[in-house]
Fold this sequence. Notes:
The chain is built from seven helices and two strands. It has 164 residues and is mainly alpha-helical.
Amino acid sequence: MLCDNCLKNNATVHMTTFVNGQVKTVHLCAQCASQKKTAVVMPWFSFNDFMSTFYAETADNQQCEVCGTTLESFKKDGKLGCANCYKVFEDSILPAIKGIHMSVAHTGKHPGERVEPNKKEREEDDRQSLKERLKTALKEAVAVENFEEAARLRDEIALLEKGE
């Protein structure tokens, strides 16, 4: 079966999508699949078989001088030996990383990283929370006809709003 995209190479990747209740299957060669911007799921292949469709065609005899990992061993088990492997095998693995993540730049969290709101955001949240509590207390004071307390709460809310 020929690739539906280039109509030249044999199709080795078969993508099935469901759009508006209709099933659509696309048959692609490894090169066209590596250029595709959508996720591909093939349960009948192992993950490493799937990943190998994204690897750039390079000599498999490359080897990391630090840990000894070869490109061939990486293609088999999907594991790099050290940080230097990313530099050594860069030309081969960047297309795979880009194909999966749609980018080669890390944009997410780092292990152990806690995202803390900055001081200004915390102060704004505290002010909003206080204002909401005061408004609730004001409604309760008016409901029980405690107008002195209601007037005090009204003035405090006005001060908060003026400070924003």
